[in-house]
Amino acid sequence: MRKVLGVIGAAVLLAGLSPSASGSVATTQQTADSASSAATSLGQGARDRFSMRDRWAREGTHHGNQDTSVYDIDHVRELQYRLRWAGAYGGPVTGYFGDQTERGVRRFQRRNDLRVTGRANHKTWAELLHDTVRRRGRVPNICKKPGWHACYDRTVHQVTLWHKGRIHNTWLVRGGSSDHPTRKGNTHVYRRDKDHVSGLFGSPMPYSQFFDGGQAFHGSAAMMDPFSGHSHGCVNMYIEDARQLWRLTSDKYLRVTVYGRWS
Questions:
Q1: Distance between CA 125 and CA 103 in Å, rounded?
Q2: What pLDDT, in 10s, does the model give residues 161-208?
Q3: Positions of E strands within 173-231
Q4: Do 41 and 146 belong to one domain?
Q5: This prediction's pTM
Q6: Residue whose C-alpha is closest to residue 117's, from 135, 131, 132, 104
Q7: How many CB atoms lie within 10 A of CB 101?
Q8: Domain housing 44
Q9: Are 176 and 234 part of one and the same domain?
Q10: Which tens digit of pLDDT belongs to each residue from 25-41?
Q11: Are residues 39 and 91 in the same domain?
Q12: Are residues 84 and 107 in the same domain?
């Protein structure tokens, strides 16, 4: 009983209420109801919170957002591509979140029994990312071994990050050109440089994680659309995505597998 009263008392304080000295039944009931409401609200808030380290994490995206530059990516192009692959959007990939994109988000949310808001929040992104991992059956078995493993499929411009045998996240990327392809094989990250600048081209390569000679996962100062253009062999990522991969793995032993035909 004392434990129950202690829980109610804590909830009362969280609700901003003062216990009544009269001890009336009505006041007690009102306090209990308010405490219950406060506890429910706090619980809902806890369920809605997430970290970019979480599985399938992506920043929220909503109407009016736009991918305006390599330093200001709201993941709208990615959202439009993935909604297309999920069969919820038939519009163009423009990088602007307008009415048509919002309808696509709502359609996807209805189909997946999510709260229909038209905003791509964490829960919507998590479902969408899970559903749109491409060529899942072609992922090499080595990627599913214990530990952290980044696997790049050159065919579909996709990196999947694996941890303890299951996918932790996935990102759209672009790799090397036909003259300078990203080399296939199984390697591991052997050097990292958060603020790297290319010695050959003088271009910034933030959050670089080198895995094969001069080839690395890194944020790109040139990539707006993962399906447009190529790198000189590195795996280009949106800068925010490269930072996300860095924060997840920069203090880990990270295996790397590059596979699939060149695209």
A1: 15
A2: 999 999 999 999 999 999 999 999 999 999 999 999 988 778 899 999
A3: 185-188, 191-197, 204-212, 215-219
A4: no
A5: 0.81
A6: 104
A7: 26
A8: 2-48
A9: yes
A10: 344 444 444 444 333 33
A11: no
A12: yes
